[in-house]
Each structure stands twice: as C-alpha cells, then as structure tokens.
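Input (structure):
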C-alpha cells in the first residue's frame, strides 16, 4: 500500500476548539489522514463521498474544501500539494449532494465563519480566507519582510514613478481616457487616486499594470455612471461613481474592517460603512463610502486607521495574484497622471496605535464586526 507524503506525529490529538467548531457546523469526528484510513473511508461510502471536508494539520491549522464526487480524492491532493507548509494529520467529513454553486457558497460561508471565530484559527484556504498564508507569487516582487515594512510605514517606502509599465492599450480604453480627461473634475479624481496609490498600494510605481490597474470605463447603470475604477488582482478596491441626476461623485474604497477607526471617528471623518460587498473579497472586507471626492481625500490625510485598513486590504489582494481580466482596460494615461501626482505629494504621518500584523498567520484579531 503506497504511503502518503505526510508524517503522523506521535501523540498528536485534534484541537478541542476545532472539534467544537466542526461539530457545530455538521462535520463528523476526526479521522486519521493516512492511506489506510482513506481507503477504509472510501469503502464505507462506496467510492463516492460528495460534500465538504475539513482537514487539520500538526499545528492545528485548518482547511475547508468541497468535492462533488469524492472528498478522499481531494484530500490526497491536499496532502501532496500542501506538504511544504502543512503536515496534515486528520480530516472530517460532512456529506452534501448539492451542486457546485451551492457547495461553493457553503464553503465560503464556512471559511468566513472559521476565520472570524474567537478561537483565532489559522485557515489555510487562499480564495475565501483572502489573507494568504505561506508563500505568495507577490513575494518574488516584494519579500514578506519588505511587505511588513511597507505596511508599517507606507510613506517611507515610496518608489519614484518614471513611466507606465503598460506597453499596449485598446482603442476602447483610449476613447474612455479622452472622455474622462474632458471632465471638469478629472484633476480632482486623479489626485485622489494618487493619494490612495501613495498611501495604500504596495510600491505602486513598481507594481502598476502587473498587479494593479486603473480604468475609466464610463459605463452606466440606471442613473449612475462609473467614472473611474482601480482594481487589484481580480477585485475593484477603489471606485468613483457619478449620480447622473445630481452630478455628485461618490467614492467607495475596500478596507480590512479590523483596522478601521472607532464609530465616533468614522462619523467625524464623514465615512459610511457598507459592510461586505464582494463575495470573493474575504471575511474582513468592509467597503467605506464617501459622499464626495474631497471627503475621501480629507479622511485619508487625517486617519492612520483608514490608511492601514485600506493598505492591508490592498496588500492581501495583491498577494492573491496578478491582474486578470481588467488588464486590457487599463489606462496608462490615467495611471501616469496619478503616479506623477503621487511623486509630488506631501503626506504627513498621523498618530496611530501600534498594530501587530502577521503576513504568514493572518491578522491579529483587533476587533470583531458587529
């Protein structure tokens, strides 16, 4: 019988906290992650065990996954693929015969529940946990120690911008830029993007186009028109929307809610919390809305907590991967204008309580969402 590439730890026992959470969410008892046990499990379920699985490694880190056919097959893959960061010891099973969409929705809900649990689990899921544990493709561009240094002091880590890294631009993107540049408020929006890039995007000048893009699509939905959008990886993180009836441009920005200021400070800064907006943004997403571009700029200048929340959210998005489908819509003219403006920005540090951030193990539990 071939052996699996994990190593049973003598005397290892499942975490009582993991067991309590697992049972609460319908998973069965822990089974040893061995070839013998997986074969017995497969035999018990007739070679087909669809549903959800939960594995636990030697450090009591966990992972929630799904399979429409047989979780044992997925578990074998995980034991092999995660062996550099996880020595998997046990797994639990929850039968569910629903389709892919329902299983993925449930998987996301369970991952979010585990990440936010008071037991402070380290959740190894990359897609739904959204705080990347272990290695990331972005580590090649910026080592984890440098990422940590940037997050602690984004002002000190600015790289001077000397030209866009984009070598191509679609005709649609060129037309969109001309339309945007003709707006009376285009300069104010560019300056707001510059401030966000200066304070919230890791090494924005060096990561433009490959890791973040900015577009000025001008698409309309009802009485609203999207004026400008900045996206990291596959997700919008900063966007400007015009009310076509009033002409007012509002701003929304993605943040990590654990770093946000108090409710009193939130009101003082003219911020409105909208909660989670994107299903794929992870459990800590808190989108903040501002009634005007100037309110957004003022808040970023005044609030270290807002800066830290937006910066942490942006960094975690960057660690999920390079820009995907939005790359062809990138506006190098808009990026160039914003980053040149950022070169000349005078940004002062503001007081903020020391916050320990740990890239490899998630974020310290600073506070919980109501």
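Output (sequence):
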């Amino acid at each position: 019988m071939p052996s699996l590439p994990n190593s049973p730890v003598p005397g290892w026992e499942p975490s009582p906290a993991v067991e309590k959470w697992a049972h609460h969410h319908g998973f069965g008892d822990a089974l040893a992650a061995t070839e013998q046990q997986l074969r017995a499990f497969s035999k018990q379920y007739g070679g087909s065990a669809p549903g959800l699985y939960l594995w636990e490694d030697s450090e009591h880190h966990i992972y929630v996954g799904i399979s429409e056919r047989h979780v044992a097959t997925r578990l074998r893959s995980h034991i092999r693929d995660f062996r550099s960061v996880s020595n998997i010891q046990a797994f639990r099973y929850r039968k569910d015969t629903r389709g892919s969409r329902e299983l993925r929705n449930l998987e996301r809900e369970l991952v979010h529940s585990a990440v936010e649990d008071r037991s402070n689990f380290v959740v190894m899921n990359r897609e739904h946990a959204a705080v990347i544990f272990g290695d990331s493709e972005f580590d090649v561009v910026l080592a984890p120690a440098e990422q940590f240094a940037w997050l602690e002091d984004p002002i000190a880590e600015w790289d001077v911008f000397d030209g866009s890294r984009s070598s191509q631009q679609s005709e649609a993107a060129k037309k969109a830029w001309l339309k945007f540049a003709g707006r009376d408020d285009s300069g104010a929006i560019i300056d707001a993007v510059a401030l966000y890039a200066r304070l919230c995007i890791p090494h924005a000048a060096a990561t433009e186009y490959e890791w973040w893009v900015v577009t000025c699509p001008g698409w309309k939905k009802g009485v609203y028109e999207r004026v400008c959008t900045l996206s990291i990886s596959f997700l919008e993180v900063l966007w400007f929307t015009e009310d076509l009836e009033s002409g007012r441009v509002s701003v929304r920005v993605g943040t990590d809610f654990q770093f946000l200021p108090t409710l009193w400070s939130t009101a003082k800064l003219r911020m409105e919390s909208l909660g989670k907006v994107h299903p794929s943004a992870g459990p800590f997403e808190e989108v903040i809305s501002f009634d005007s571009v100037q309110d957004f700029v003022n808040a970023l200048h005044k609030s270290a907590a807002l800066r830290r929340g937006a910066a942490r959210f942006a960094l975690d998005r960057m660690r999920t991967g390079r820009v995907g489908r939005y790359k062809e819509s990138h506006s190098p003219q808009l990026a160039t204008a914003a980053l040149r403006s950022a070169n000349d920005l005078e940004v002062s540090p503001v007081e903020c309580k020391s916050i320990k951030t740990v890239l490899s193990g998630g974020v310290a539990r600073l506070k919980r969402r109501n």
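Notes: The first helix runs from residue 16 to 24. DSSP finds twelve helices and eleven strands in the chain.
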